């Protein structure tokens, strides 16, 4: 079986990391898997890049211009929306032709257009599409917030200036997605049960096969190591209780850093003895910008792309805090758990599926800084640390282990192939 994993980037972003790990897991379990990306970042021979032409940059610019125009030439949510109006036809590439399964992941920002996806469908090859956010079943947004228009038909999009209109850009793209999926049989895979439930409510995916399979983790890289050594390597204090927060872009409001800041101020006021021991590690782009907002020392580290370096940073921490307001199945939580680091997060998205309350971490009520502070205090309790750490590792291996996840996908691939064969012979 030959599987072609299609993702915009090889390594940048959560979807790229998850897709790359899946490729390796499949290879380790007897499947010939390759990635086809727009943005290649390594010399990995099983990762191929589409031909690099001037049109690739033009595609990206043209899509942003269309969104910019729809928003009355304001930058409002410019990079929270995608319309897939431009892209590259990959069906003529040798990697596509030799594949038995086409496995789409995150294909936005000018990589594949809706027309390109329809060509993939019309090629006759079985298609599996892993959804890393809500975009495959909404009009234009990756996360809909409180809007549920996608359940019937997108319109009056709250992501557009002045709340859009009855026939706005979201309506136009939703209609185009309907046409794209007409008569198609795609297996849609959500990374969390939360996203699966959302997808099943979307009118776009009516009649499609929808299930959930979590992202995998390489436990040979993300594993417990010596905390003292990890701290020395990154010039981190040996005596502090260190909380870790990580995000590709730390200023992304959806990632909820302001709630961690507020929780820290509460701890500083209510738990002065504990507060004296706390330090904050922030990993991601623009990490330095939050330094002055915390009452505790902040150790800022720019975005880390290499997994082994990131694993060392997890091992330098006492706890990982993810105050996201809307998220699917964050790789960061899986990584932290696999390193034996207890996690604290809000009861939103797929996070409660990952953090077992008071077993391997703490689940706080959404957007509740006081409860987040309570969770931080709970996981930093030295009497709990060994139990929480052991439970974290156990959860990571049981739920996100490579063989476990790979076998689930292999079964999905075989089912998709069998369906296509049955239709061909009928």
Keywords:
426 residues; 7-stranded parallel sheet; 16% strand; single chain; 15 helices; alpha/beta; 6-stranded parallel sheet
Please mark out the parts with pLDDT under 50 across 5 or more consecutive residues, or reply none: none
User: Which outline best applies?
Assistant: globular
- Average pLDDT confidence is 95
Secondary structure: helix percent: 25-40%
Annotation, overall tally of beta strands: 13
Report the radius of gyration as a whole number of Å.
22 Å
Order of helices and strands: EHEEHHEHEHEHEHEHHEEHEHEHEHHH
Oligomeric assembly: single chain
Structure description:
The chain is built from 15 helices and 13 strands. It is globular. The protein is an alpha/beta fold and 426 residues long. The two termini are 23 Å apart. The chain has a seven-stranded parallel β-sheet. A six-stranded parallel β-sheet has the order 10-9-8-11-12-13, with helices on both faces. 39% of the residues lie in helices and 16% in strands. Strand 6, helix 6 (193-201) and strand 7 (209-212) form a beta-alpha-beta unit.
Concise synopsis of the structure shown:
39% of the residues lie in helices and 16% in strands.
């Amino acid at each position: 079986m030959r599987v072609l994993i299609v993702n915009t980037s090889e390594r940048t972003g959560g979807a790229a990391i998850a897709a790359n790990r899946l490729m390796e897991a499949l290879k380790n379990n007897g499947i010939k898997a390759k990635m086809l990306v727009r943005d290649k970042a390594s010399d990995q021979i099983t990762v191929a890049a589409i031909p690099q032409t001037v049109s690739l940059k033009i595609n990206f610019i043209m899509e942003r211009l269309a969104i910019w125009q729809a928003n009355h030439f304001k930058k409002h949510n410019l990079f929270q929306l995608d319309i897939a109006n431009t892209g590259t036809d990959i069906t003529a590439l040798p990697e596509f032709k030799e594949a038995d399964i086409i496995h789409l992941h995150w294909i936005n920002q000018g990589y594949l257009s809706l027309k390109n996806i329809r060509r993939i469908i019309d090629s006759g090859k079985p298609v599996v599409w892993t959804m890393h956010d809500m975009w495959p079943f909404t009009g234009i947004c990756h996360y809909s917030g409180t809007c549920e228009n996608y359940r019937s038909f997108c319109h009056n999009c709250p992501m557009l200036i002045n709340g859009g209109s009855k026939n706005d850009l979201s309506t136009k793209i939703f209609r185009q997605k309907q046409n794209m999926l007409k008569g198609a049989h795609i297996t849609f895979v959500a990374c969390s049960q939360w996203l699966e439930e959302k997808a099943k409510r979307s009118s776009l995916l009516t009649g499609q096969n929808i299930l959930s399979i979590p992202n995998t983790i390489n436990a040979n890289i993300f594993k417990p190591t010596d905390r003292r050594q990890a701290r020395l390597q990154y010039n981190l204090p040996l005596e502090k209780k260190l909380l870790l927060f990580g995000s590709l872009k730390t200023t992304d409001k959806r990632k909820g850093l302001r709630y961690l800041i507020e929780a820290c101020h509460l701890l500083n006021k209510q738990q002065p003895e504990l507060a004296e021991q706390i330090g904050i590690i922030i990993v991601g782009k623009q990490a330095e910008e939050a330094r002055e907002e915390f009452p505790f020392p902040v150790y800022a580290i720019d975005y880390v792309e290499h997994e082994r370096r990131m694993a060392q940073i997890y091992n330098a921490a006492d706890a990982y805090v993810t105050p996201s307001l809307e998220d699917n199945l964050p790789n960061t939580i899986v990584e932290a758990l696999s390193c034996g680091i207890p996690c604290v997060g809000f009861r939103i998205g797929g996070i409660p599926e990952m953090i077992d309350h008071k077993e391997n971490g703490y689940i706080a009520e959404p957007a509740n800084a006081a409860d987040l502070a309570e969770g931080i205090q709970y996981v930093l309790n030295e009497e709990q640390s060994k139990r929480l750490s052991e439970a974290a590792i156990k959860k990571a291996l049981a739920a996100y282990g490579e063989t476990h996840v790979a076998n689930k996908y292999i079964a999905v691939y075989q089912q998709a192939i069998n369906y296509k064969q049955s239709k061909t012979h009928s």
